[in-house]
Write a structure and sequence with these properties.
Phage tail protein beta-alpha-beta fold, globular, 13-stranded mixed beta sheet, Phage tail proteins - horseshoe like beta roll fold, mainly beta, 12% helix, disordered C terminus, 360 residues, single chain
């Protein structure tokens, strides 16, 4: 299967003929990135490059735009084997790089979508919610602080972490607040069929047989006493030896049911995060000709890595080199690793951060 052509579009002009390509996107990184290497001149481009760092650009693979952003750096050289390269990131780069400008730095509850839109607006980055995802406002019993000097990206990631969301670049200049995807790839990943190489890591250092969440709950006129100071909930990972026990302090006030839910979440997510897989396939596309997608489920079968199940594609890197041709590197994890942490929904909007009441 032929490799789709990679083109860099700047000012309406297309640049091609790359000697090596690396295009990376991840659900755990707010920015997609690219590095393109080329000899200074090639058959269709006999004049020196007019490209400059700061130029707005788009990277296309075949007819599909995978990154819309800006050139960050250029490297130029001469002599044997010398050429030129450009590196850039998508439009969320300014959100990642620049400090947020807020009038209030602490809040007890927030409309997450409105908050992200407020911080992205100065950079012209639209923010959308994953289709079909419904959010309640998220309560943060102890005030959550954004430090002056934190970047807008850091602040958004902080709030999204509490809401159990993943802020993911859509590659087209926008940001999507998402959760682990449930869509499926059209091709499977099978050792001996389409896998060039693979690496599995099983790490149980963060897994415990018993996880105990210790917290407290604010008293009321009808419910008060020392019992509110010793709230606890427990959960068990039966695949770990009984001697391994850990205690977790929740971020805010919890009751017994909430402590139990948090302990169950800790056990499930720690188990899912203990397994990571990296594989490489030849080419950039699935059997149907579509690029390997981000945030979709794929079946991985590898006797060597002792795995035969569905996993979530967390990272996709398209590579092109003279030695290996076109390959795709995929980072895979169990979807349960991204299960949202149990939260306390806000009953009424009175606690909203003042700047976000009624929207922005």
């Amino acid at each position: 299967m032929s490799t789709p052509q990679v083109k860099l579009l700047v000012g309406g002009k297309r640049y091609g003929g790359w000697s090596s390509v690396r295009i990376t996107r991840s659900i755990e990184a707010m920015c997609g990135s690219f590095t393109l290497d080329v000899f200074d001149r090639w058959a269709d481009q006999q004049t020196a490059w007019p490209l400059r760092e700061g130029d707005d650009c788009a990277v296309q693979v075949g007819d599909e735009t995978v990154i819309t952003g800006t050139i960050d750096t250029r490297e130029l050289g001469f002599g044997a084997g010398a050429g030129a390269s450009v590196t850039g990131r998508d439009a969320t780069r300014n959100v990642v790089d620049c400090a947020c400008d807020l009038q209030v730095w602490e809040f007890s509850a927030v409309d997450v979508l409105a908050f992200a839109r407020k911080l992205c607006a100065p950079y012209g980055v639209p923010v959308t919610l994953q289709p079909g995802l419904v959010l309640s406002k998220i309560a943060i019993p102890r005030k959550l602080s954004i430090d002056p000097g934190d970047t807008a990206g850091t602040a958004i990631e902080h709030v999204c972490r509490v809401a159990g969301l993943l802020p993911i670049s859509d590659g087209l200049g926008g940001l999507v607040l998402s959760r682990a995807g449930s869509g499926r790839c059209t091709s499977a990943l099978t050792e001996g069929v389409n896998l060039l190489e693979g690496q599995a890591k099983y790490d149980r250092t963060q897994r415990h047989y018993k996880v105990v969440v210790l917290g407290n709950k604010a008293g009321t006129e009808s419910d008060w006493g020392t019992h509110l100071l010793s709230i606890r909930g427990s959960a068990y990972d039966r695949n770990v030896e009984p001697s391994r026990v850990t205690y977790v302090r929740p971020e805010g006030s919890v009751d017994t049911a909430q402590a139990k839910a948090r302990a169950q979440w800790e056990v499930a997510v720690r188990a899912a995060r203990s397994e990571t897989f990296s594989v490489t396939v030849q080419g950039w596309t699935q059997a149907d000709g579509s690029l390997w997608p981000l945030n979709k489920l794929v079946h991985l079968r590898s006797p060597t890595m002792e795995i035969d199940t569905d996993l979530l594609i967390c990272g996709v890197t398209l590579n092109l080199s003279r030695d290996s041709g076109s390959t795709t590197a995929l980072d895979l994890r169990r979807a349960e690793a991204f299960t949202p942490m149990p939260t306390i929904p806000v009953a009424a909007p009175n606690g909203l951060w003042a700047e976000l009441k009624g929207g922005v």
